[in-house]
Amino acid sequence: MMRSTDIGASERHARIVLDSYRKLLGKPLLETEGSGSAAEQLFEAPIAVLSHGTEADPVLNYGNRTALGLWEMDWASFTSMPSRLTAEPLVREERQRFMEAVAAKGYIDDYSGVRISGTGRRFRIEQAVVWNLYDESGAYYGQAAAFAGYTRL
């Protein structure tokens, strides 16, 4: 069984994802916070959770089990992919405008859009929350997204 610690997800990264969400949205991302390690809770969550770093062309640096399954990718492939490649080429400009809006406000809590898996399958994510990540010192750390709803197209 693949575990969060087997694939490089750190407790620190999980804490940043969870704490940033709580600070920006005023509520916990996961109802189970408090039981078990943050890394394990985040990796095993029934909702898709993914994040990217601060590079000029941000690269995904995290995907939980749900996200990896939905994108049909393993950890190494997922975490080496520029996040812009999660969208089809025709909607990447729209995605960029959206990401800029998230950067300005701190979060968006009602995003929907078409994404594409590693095998080329298309799916629409629904009511996604996308938020900025800040580390313990308040420095910008990247962005994360979480969603439960999706429809295969």
UniProtKB/TrEMBL annotation:
It comes from Paenibacillus artemisiicola. This is MEKHLA domain-containing protein. It holds the Pfam family MEKHLA. Residues 12-150 form the MEKHLA domain. The lineage of its organism: Bacteria, Bacillati, Bacillota, Bacilli, Bacillales.
